[in-house]
């Protein structure tokens, strides 16, 4: 099967779509060809993927080919199963017939012969050429088509369709598309199953000697290509992934020696995106493929599918991982590969991947996080390519021109040198090149740092190239070590005269045959550069890469291009810091070319990053370069700021004389004529704080003095010509704070300085240190930083993590405003109500004041209604009250609320006013009535709601008044019930008492009861009272009663589930009240309704009725307590008697429940008792208890959990409260008189 690799690759490159064969029986194809081909490609074709799940393909390309075409006739039988993917996926049979006898004798037998092959998916298209005006021909065509359907269609599948040339039916083309796609789907499923079966057979033989990966590869890629032709790219990609995994396992089988590849000319150019770089039959090795070419081929196939899926991000992600892993493989075979093959391949692979992914990527089509991650991967590819390119440049002698920055040093110093089996030697005619390289080495000198900064240069190599190259030469002499190091002195190698040797300028080439001795002398550095350059020319076939290494100018241009590409992509990703760091490398190149403006802009971004991250060591490397650019550009302000920042860095980063040079530059510029003097921020250089101890305390209007500690970070003394220190109030930002000034110059010594400043009168409040400003010569400076110079445990150590300590307090403040509640009565719950807030300014204007309103849980503002505000008087006469009762409002204004804020009108700035806020207290709890047995009543806390108020006022809203108010909401009624009368026929007269709970008049218009199971109404049965005395008026704090007539009914099967339900009392009522007194009619939220229309409100309350005990089985009684009474700490026996009233259970479960705070049980709390089956039998249960507290407490209670309450008669079951006396006094605690 492996012999067909060349043919397989040719067929694969020429077949990229599905083939549909056309069997033209009646010569109709030229007539219908145009209509058929206009349907291509098929839209929204439904196919099955590998897991047999339906997938809709938007555009399915296909081609119609006649069965007589040479492309279908020229295939040999043995190829059909091997290259089954190119066989037709459906067969369309075109027929026509105008005579029924002709159909039976000629057409039908021929069709039977055509469709006898069960492996093909076919269907018949009957083409009718009968004109619509010819009725006889039309009827005959219909008869023939009907006979055709009977003979070739079945219930399971319809295999015929009819095309009328003169007037085709509207749904014919849709029916044709459906049948074609159905045939393609069936054929695809069958072929996929065939390939899966064959692959399964081969997989079972993987560990046998007959295993051949080439056979497995052809079948696996054929299956993948089937999916690719069907536009099922996800399944095709999955097949290639599995193929890659299988190949990795095959390659890594121990014991087999395989050729890696990569030795041919042009192999250094990565082909990871070009699957047709080499024919497959040329990279076959035994039963597999060479790893170098085949792994790139697999990745090229995967990337092609990913690009078709519009996923360039995944191509970049997979590509970066592939380059890293493949580079490791190249490292393993580096000794047999051409010189620097790994570095060259990585450069070309990264550039190819960057170009392909960038061209396929479209902005705005993916999510933001995917877009940023894509640019991060592009930046990584650029960085990897840049790193390998710098290593190649270092090999040819351009390393001395590379910026020895931290990023370059960190990257290159960890990158190993190439490790060829034999280091390349220089060619015989390279003397002039060696001389040029030596001249370049002698002329190369590091650029001196500004301010005379002397630093050890960072390394760019993992080890010395000279020693590494000579160590890998074919014949290496021990030679002179100083000659190996090119005449440079090294530790431990000196001449006897204590003078280092200098290597002679020998021009002889160090290749075999040029020396008489059998041992070559060590190569010099220039010779190593020339040898590497010639070796790279033999390795590299890419003209662009060769051009980039041909000269220093071309190298810098390519280096700048790669660095900018990495920086730009990092800036557009999450890793913006990487982009800023690379901006520093661009700045170094720009500086070397004299483009100081661009260099300064890039250095500023790098310095901002290093300063923000706290990387001061790195900042010390870059900041002098920025200062040098600014000085060259005559940017005095920037240069001055850079000098101050250099002084602010840690003292150990620079020598003392270097820091003195920084200060001298600052002083020189401060006393010079600056063109544009700007304030300088010295917060990191001059810091300050207050003295230890309590703050200075003054009264309003008193002057004083204030001592301040100032720390100077300058290396020498510096004179401040003027000094100003501002104070900041801790509770407001009043502009009336006066600054502290020094009238005489102040000399600051390095370290801590204490100065005393005159303190002018300040307004009442607490003050902290604000901003320190002053002047050095003509330079104005400012500092807003607290000192961090003292020890951490002392008060001198001030940082932003600790609260700011006040240094001055001025007393005698007074209140300026007051907010109180307008009413104290309860409001209606679950109804819109007005809450009144009385605003009283205390000799202070509230002009422009803003009130922030924040409601607590269970309370919300009705924002659909405006807030109202009116003037307030403490005493209201009767006329005013009457007017308000009629709905008239005195000087009322509407205010809007926005985001919980209300702005005060101007008229309310000086006078007392009332703000009415429409709110609604929400409660989902249904109120429950009480009775003589159950005296339950809603807790007043349940109706409490809170509203938080925050008033901002003053000229700049610097005054703030906070207050939280509690508002009480309640139901209009509390309901209590009792049985007023009980008749012999079971009728009960139920009295319902309504207690008014609001300060308003309530009018009941209607009431009815929804009874629970077991009770029925008497009379009309509508649940309404026995007498119609509505409307019923109930004044504030009064009560009224309503009588209902009910009786006990039989419990049916349907009502058994409603025995535990509650009885609901429904009341329709109205309320007459005013918002100034308490509860009132609800706020009309709907403005469309008339103010005169008043809607009835509905109140619902739950009542609990208990059916009387009609058939008790047990009687439980509590036996009397001892006459001596109960005392704390003394044992007492609690006894209950249980008596059998009728035949019931013989064994009864009991349980004693007691409050653990009041009682300690000494006996058994839970158990079983046995009763004699005779009626009247009794059992006494005794429990030892110890009272723990004195007073009236509830005694322990006896319960029978397994018996319903209706079967128990209590006579009684126990007292409600018992009296417990205090413990008797002990004589041991008595003190004699």
TrEMBL record:
GO terms for biological process?
early endosome to Golgi transport; intra-Golgi vesicle-mediated transport
* Main location per the UniProt record: Golgi
Record domain TRAPPC10/Trs130 C-terminal: where? 1136-1198
Tell me the InterPro entries matching this sequence.
TRAPPC10/Trs130, TRAPPC10/Trs130_C, TRAPPC10/Trs130_N
- Subcellular compartments: Golgi apparatus
Q: Does the keyword Protein biosynthesis apply?
A: no
Q: Where is the TRAPPC10/Trs130 N-terminal domain?
A: 15-316
Q: Which domain of life is it from?
A: Eukaryota
Q: Mind telling me which Pfam families this protein's record contains?
A: TRAPPC10, TRAPPC10_1st
* Keyword field: Golgi apparatus, Transport
Q: Looking at the keywords, is Glycoprotein present?
A: no
A GO-annotated cellular component: TRAPPII protein complex
> What protein name applies here?
Trafficking protein particle complex II-specific subunit 130 homolog
Q: What is the lineage of its organism?
A: Eukaryota, Viridiplantae, Streptophyta, Embryophyta, Tracheophyta
